Each structure stands twice: as C-alpha cells, then as structure tokens.
C-alpha cells in the first residue's frame, strides 16, 4: 500500500515522540513491503513564530491532500503563562479539526498485563480494563460562541449541538461496540443541561436500531467516579466534546501515565492520529518523553487503512518493550532508557506474525484485529 502521511510535530516533545512513530512506520514499510511518503509541516506555537498563525495555509493544504496525518503535540509555556494572548497554539488544533471535519475522537484505554504494577490504582480494579471513548470533536462548548464583557468581569461560552452532529458519532460508537463486548454507555448531564437532554434523546432512539447492543446512560459525575472504582464495567463510552476531554485524561490514571494513550480523530474523508498527552515543554530536548502513545497512534493509523497485521506487529513490539522494561522514566520506575532508545527498541522488534507467534495473543492488547 502507498500512503502519503503529513507529519505535524508541533511543540514541546511533539517532534521527539513523532520521530519514534516514523521509525516504526519505516520498519513496517520494510517488513511488509509498503510505501509511505512522509511530509513535514509547521504547526502550533512553532508555526506562529514564522507566520503568526498556529495553522498556516500551507500546512492545512498538506493535511487536506494527504491520506492521513500524524500529529505530535501542541502548546507552549509563553502562551500558557499569558492569559491576554489573543491567538493561542491550541486554536490551530481546533481549526484543523473543524476544517478537516474530524468529528470523532477515538481514544482506547487498554491495560497491558505487563503494566499492572504501573497503575496507582489497585490491581484488582484495573486488571483487564479495555474500553474506548468516542468523543465528539467539532461541536459543543469548545466551538460555541464566546463572549467577554467590556470590563472583563462577565464571560460566557455557548454549548450547541444538533441532532445530526450527535447521530453521526453515535452510529460510529454502536458499530464499534458490535465488534467489541456489545455495550455502549452515554455520558451526559441530562439532569441539568438542555444540550445533554438532546444527546440522551437522540442516542436513546439510535440505540433501538442496535438491539444486540446493551445501552446505558450515566451522568458525568457518576461516570468519573465509576471509572476509578470499576473501569472494567465500560466497553464503549460515548460523550460530548468537553466530557470526553475530561474522561480521556482520567483514563491516564488507570494506566499510570498519559504517555501511553493513543487516539484517532476521524471524519468522512480525513483522519489524524495523535497521542493525547500535552506538549510537556519542560521535557523538550531531554530525551525523557514517553513515545509509546505516539507509536500506538501509528498502529491506529495502520488499522484505519485495514492493515491489521501490521498494526498488531507494532503493538506486539510495544508489549515486548513493557515485558523487557525498556521504558522511559515515567513508567515502571525506570530511568535507564530514553525516548530514542525506546523508539529504536520497538521499531527493531517489529516482525511479521509468522516470525512471532505471540503477536495475536489476546494479552498483547489488540483483541481479534482491532485496537478500538
């Protein structure tokens, strides 16, 4: 297969972890006889130093013409520490999602057996955790009308959703559940918010079209508690933009590091793959950033194009790095290996399934043929 992949390293540790994903995809090229064309472009704060815009027109054009996008991270301290800044790097990410129609963020949270000791939660709570969050990505409060009074003392953010916006991601979530454990949990705040009541009404109606799928609704406050008490009860979580943002980060607590969580952002024509950690500017250039979330995001890219064996090969190599404790400082108490070494180890252990009988073992992490 031939694919053109746009590389948006972005800010902070983004370029460092993205480089490890590229290593792994090049190993996939060689091992499975594919051809990937990688094209880099500026994005985020680093792009603002040249153009004044976090998403230059040239970068957007590249993303629109590419088969897929691999993204690193976005954000810089000079903007985080300046509440008066009119333009922020994160605005580029919001615009990119909107321009490309990336309405669904797919965020798997999977506990690898070799990683149980890394979680701050008790083993009996997190063992066998395997859930995926479907977060609506281009609507809601993040994109609604925003106002600030002239005296700067009153502000508002409008949360708006349409039935069609809710329906398109709901169908994706139910279809994913059919390939998993056949359960969908809608997370909302329907006891307070009118937008949540529309979510509950719309998704409840859609659920009737999937009679083989178990469907339940939870308020966001209860869902947040349940994720910490018993994450194994969840299969597919469906929710809006803001609640999905919160629950995704909470999922990093289950695994013990935000550096382990990949994601895909998909639309009808475009797809972007990214770790959902931040830019971690304090670690920039120190070779300590965890590349696993980025590398697993590249596995999701392969899976998106039906390259399931190739995706499995990456996850098997990641699993081997866990077993051998070839990990970065944020996990398993290790301080021996850096970002580059972990990336090298994983890329060098990518092999075809015929050469590695453990690749399809259910304990490795993908299940039958799918990360999500």
From TrEMBL:
It is an enzyme of class 1 (oxidoreductase). Residues 4-346 form the Isopropylmalate dehydrogenase-like domain. InterPro entries: IsoCit/isopropylmalate_DH_CS, IsoPropMal-DH-like_dom, Isopropylmalate_DH. Pfam families: Iso_dh. Homodimer. One of its GO terms (cellular component) is cytosol. Its cofactor is Mg(2+); Mn(2+). This is 3-isopropylmalate dehydrogenase. Its EC number is 1.1.1.85. Binds 1 Mg(2+) or Mn(2+) ion per subunit. It comes from Zobellia galactanivorans (strain DSM 12802 / CCUG 47099 / CIP 106680 / NCIMB 13871 / Dsij). Pathway: Amino-acid biosynthesis; L-leucine biosynthesis; L-leucine from 3-methyl-2-oxobutanoate: step 3/4. GO terms for biological process: L-leucine biosynthetic process. It catalyses: (2R,3S)-3-isopropylmalate + NAD(+) = 4-methyl-2-oxopentanoate + CO2 + NADH. GO terms for molecular function: 3-isopropylmalate dehydrogenase activity; magnesium ion binding; NAD binding. Keywords: Amino-acid biosynthesis, Branched-chain amino acid biosynthesis, Leucine biosynthesis, Magnesium, Manganese, Metal-binding, NAD, Oxidoreductase. Belongs to the isocitrate and isopropylmalate dehydrogenases family. LeuB type 1 subfamily. Catalyzes the oxidation of 3-carboxy-2-hydroxy-4-methylpentanoate (3-isopropylmalate) to 3-carboxy-4-methyl-2-oxopentanoate. The product decarboxylates to 4-methyl-2 oxopentanoate. NCBIfam families: leuB. The keyword Manganese applies. Gene3D superfamilies: Isopropylmalate Dehydrogenase.
């Amino acid at each position: 297969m031939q694919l053109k992949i746009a590389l948006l390293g972005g800010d902070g540790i983004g370029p460092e972890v993205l480089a490890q994903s590229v290593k792994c995809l090049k190993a996939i090229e060689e091992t499975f006889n594919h051809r990937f064309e990688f094209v880099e472009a500026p994005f985020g704060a680093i792009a603002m130093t040249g153009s004044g815009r976090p998403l230059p027109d040239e970068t957007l054009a590249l993303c629109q013409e590419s088969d897929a996008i691999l993204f690193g991270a976005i954000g810089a301290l000079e903007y985080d520490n300046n509440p008066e800044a009119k333009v922020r790097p994160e605005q580029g990410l919001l615009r990119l999602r909107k321009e490309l129609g990336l309405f669904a963020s797919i965020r798997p949270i999977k506990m690898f057996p070799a990683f149980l000791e890394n979680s701050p939660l008790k083993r009996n709570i997190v063992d066998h955790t395997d859930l995926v969050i479907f977060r609506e990505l281009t609507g809601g409060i993040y994109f609604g009308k925003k106002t600030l009074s002239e005296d700067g003392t009153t502000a508002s953010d409008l949360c708006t959703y349409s039935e069609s916006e809710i329906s398109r991601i709901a169908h994706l979530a139910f279809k994913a559940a059919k390939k998993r454990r056949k359960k969908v949990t809608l997370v909302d705040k329907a006891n307070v918010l009118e937008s949540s009541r529309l979510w509950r009404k719309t998704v409840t109606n859609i659920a009737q079209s999937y009679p083989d799928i178990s469907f339940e609704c939870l308020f966001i406050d209860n869902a947040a508690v349940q994720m910490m008490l018993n994450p194994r009860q969840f299969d597919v979580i469906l929710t809006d933009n803001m609640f999905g943002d919160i629950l995704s980060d909470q999922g990093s607590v289950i695994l013990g590091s935000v550096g382990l969580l990949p994601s895909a952002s998909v639309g009808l024509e475009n797809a972007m793959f990214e770790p959902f950690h931040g830019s971690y500017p304090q670690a920039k250039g120190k070779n300590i950033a965890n590349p696993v979330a980025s590398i697993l995001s590249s596995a999701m890219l392969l899976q998106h194009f039906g390259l399931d064996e190739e995706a499995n090969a990456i996850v098997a190599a990641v699993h081997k790095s866990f077993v051998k404790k070839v990990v970065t400082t944020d996990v398993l108490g290790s301080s021996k290996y850096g970002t580059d070494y972990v990336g090298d180890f994983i890329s060098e252990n990518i092999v075809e399934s015929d050469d590695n009988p453990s690749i399809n073992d259910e304990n490795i992490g993908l299940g039958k043929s799918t990360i999500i």
